[in-house]
Specification:
DNA-binding, homodimer, D-Maltodextrin-Binding Protein, domain 2, two-stranded antiparallel ribbon, Arc Repressor Mutant, subunit A
Amino acid sequence: MDLRLLESLVVVAEKGTIGEAAKRLGVSQSALSRRLQTLEFDLGVELLVRQGRGVVFTEMGRRAVEEGKILTDRYGRLKEELSRIESRKEGVVRIGGGATAVGYLLPPAIARFSAQHPGLRFEVREAGSREVEQAVVAGELDLGIVTLPLQQPDLNQSPLVRDRIVLVAGSQHPLVRGSSADEASGSGLEIESTELQGLPLVGFEKNSAIRRLIDDALLNAGVTMNVTMELRSISTILRLVESTQSLGFVSALGARQARVLPVADLLIERELALISHRDRCLSPAAQAFAEQLNR
Amino acid sequence: MDLRLLESLVVVAEKGTIGEAAKRLGVSQSALSRRLQTLEFDLGVELLVRQGRGVVFTEMGRRAVEEGKILTDRYGRLKEELSRIESRKEGVVRIGGGATAVGYLLPPAIARFSAQHPGLRFEVREAGSREVEQAVVAGELDLGIVTLPLQQPDLNQSPLVRDRIVLVAGSQHPLVRGSSADEASGSGLEIESTELQGLPLVGFEKNSAIRRLIDDALLNAGVTMNVTMELRSISTILRLVESTQSLGFVSALGARQARVLPVADLLIERELALISHRDRCLSPAAQAFAEQLNR
DNA sequence: TGTAATTGATGAGTGATTTGCATAAGATAA
DNA sequence: TTATCTTATGCAAATCACTCATCAATTACA
């Protein structure tokens, strides 16, 4: 199963004689003659007929030459590809995260990174934080951006951003008092958490990390809200908040353009961290991307 | 460039540890460990990270495994294909011949042979005898069926059939005397060659072997005919002979259903022979086909 | 924390493989 | 026939790959 033997056969086919091919390959004629014998033994068929005047290929020989070209070529390409991957000219970054990370954190980061590394591809997976954790542990993903704290052990983590969860409301919502949309938040229009009691809320899915965070915060504040819909995506929540003139809690990162209602006595925060498998080594591309994210 | 090294890597990927993979491969753990080092050196990149608990693949390693599967698989298939070729279960017969051979000799022979050897394919090339000769010498064809004598040296020849060239005429042609088409030829309706003097003739191309044969025969008989058209295919000549109510000389093999005019003092014969390159060895399939033709 | 177990790497010795050189053997061309 | 070209082969040297035994690193568990 030595490709050098097939390669030798290919060169012999090009040159027509074993002696010439040997020169080209930089080995002695006798060595090449024996290589061909070995190859014929390995493949179990007669590849060429030796005659006084050079060699002549059998049909099997011709076929072996054809395939030999393909195989040696592929081997060479593989070698080149591998060093391109190593030098980060090529490669894949498999990264996963929740709605906020995938929707608002990743796009600009990927855009910036891609500009510097045109050969690198991304595979992005959107899923819940705990699901992403598992995928990283399983080796399906190189990196994950998840809400702390982690459940799984064996993960490297590095804090990325502290993310505030803010209350957003439809533009005609009764709680939206005074002033226009372009007014900065936190400008004295604050409301109290008690005012939220019993109001309808468009929320994230049950069991998602962010949902649990919000539920806990409301519980602590002694407020009960009425979750009327459960969704996965921030943009859908924002649209529904507007169209149903109700309320929602979303990441400040995703709420920038929407109407944010500051709640005086309700601070919901979470920390998003970049995770990777502790043992498994990162691909050069993922390594570089992780470094950029941490900067 | 040893596929066994890549194959080893593939098995390690399947088993997860070098030790397990070594058992599966039937070598010692240390041997396999060194194989992997050799492979990493050959490819110039780190393929896997050794840890206390098994090994973990780098991105390059994963890529190498993917490609390794393909390469080893192809090598295996090649080996199988070669032995199928050797045992004549597969293969190609490249054969060439003139109009008569390709049109009337080869089809039944190929049909019979294909029935016995379903895996074999044919590449048939129609060309002039001398062109076929050259193609056989050049190794483009395995076999040829040509008119003797040969021009090229270095050819094996074995006589196949003695072929008579007969005169055919359109059904309304003045020379067609008496009786209907189903009457056997040579039954007393013979004409003399002198009767052909100056008559229009649909003939083969100038420079073709059969044309020269006919020209020579007419010259010997002291008859000059008027070649009004020059064609390559027997069936076209037969159609034109009928539609223009003129005369033509074609092989008796191809003229069976047409109106044959026996000429008392004109015997044109040629010998068709199967040729192959003297040095170049025949593929098993071509070998078998040649044997059947000679039988 | 310490100890046993698991797993890979390494040094040394050995056998197999590959190579080069010189030469023989086979075929071709003149 | 001889000269020439081409491949095969005997032999010795070098190289390579393997096994065995052991070490080193990590993990699992008490």
